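Q: How would the structure tokens look for this protein?
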Amino acid sequence: MEAIWEKLKIAVREVIPEHSFRMWIEPIECKEEKEDKLVLTCPNFFSKKRVQDHYGSILESEVTKILNRKYGILFEVSGEKANTKKQDPNLDHQLTLPNVQSHGYGGRLLRKDFTFDRFVVSGNNNFAYSAARSLASLNGSSQNSLFLLSKTGMGKSHLAQAVGHHILSQHPSERLYYITAEDFTNEMVHAIRHDSIDKFKQRYRNQCDVLLLEDIHFLTGKERTQIELALTIDCLFEANKKIIFSSCYLPAEIPKLNDKLSSRLASGIISNIDPPNFKERVKILQKKSNEKGYTLPPEVTEYLADELSDNVRQLESGLIGVTAKASLLGKPIDLKLAQSIVKNIARQRKNITIDVIKKLVCKEYKISISDIISRSRKQCVVRPRQIAMYLSRKYTDQPLQTIGRSFNRYHATALHSIGAIERELKHSTPTQKQIELLSQKLESGNF
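A: Here is the predicted structure in token form.
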């Protein structure tokens, strides 16, 4: 039985990404063999559901190949008894830390590698890190809220989740919720539609000790949700609970945000995370390499740090790309190989301007520059305008006010347009393919 499981793990490791294998397959244990089925145990209910939904068919297919006959997989939760009561569907998204008896908490899954010890502290994020550690300590800290501010890929989510991990490891009975503003909105809408708004209020106001709320800017224009969140924050503050917010924008920059909520968001510490400089990027790459067991020549590390200067996520993409290509091709990691990876990641920032983006978008959608900056509300003009604003935010360092002015709009309209495109990109839509095409042309210099 154990031999079958070991062979199965080796086979599955070859067909799914390494990080997925480590996160979801490695923690699984083989329990027994029963009626042409391999019984596997997962550490918690969430893990069982995730593995069953996403990797169940892969596991069954690979074990069938190994044994050359039809063979099934049965998933159980570690320590789960046959007469265990049916799980509450509201607990589907709960996470239980290994070896920790928690009273339960909800929201999204905390990434197990997003911890304080894996966060690279440097000049660009030192204050944010210190503030997060202070809030996570709980005891003796008068700090109740922290607003993490930065562009995408700078470590906001890492710090927020690190707070969650630390609190739950030190105080496992704390009730912690890690969600996005969009999750909060959707949950509230669902509660209203199913006549369970009182239960929703009770959960966040009276059954939550720590709230980690990401992407707060998605609440723009959602007046009823803003009112409910402001009241929830008041209740949590009065009970001396802890809250972490994160966003790409300051509260005052988020349009259609009511004054009461804006005031609550700005009432605690606001900490900006700046892009890392060259030395800091080298330090990040070295730490990430050591954690994953990679060995990079110093010249390759410095090359990646020099070329991939946008954010930490881009650095990680370069590191993974270089090591994966070297492994798959059986080649040593050198500058030539690194250059082949970087050319597909790094973009020619100095050549990409708002005007360049406007011209490219107008050309693709067969409209004129005068159309895209006009007051027209025709869909054939509005959508290209929104895409151009989104690309301007993504590929330039210009603030919202400048982007808005370039399209003859206020910064609030620019933020709304960017948010509309970001929401669409979360799903497989024609817009996603259009953005990918335009991004490829910008990054390749084909404009």
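The chain has a mean pLDDT of 84.

The radius of gyration is 24 Å.

Upvote if useful.
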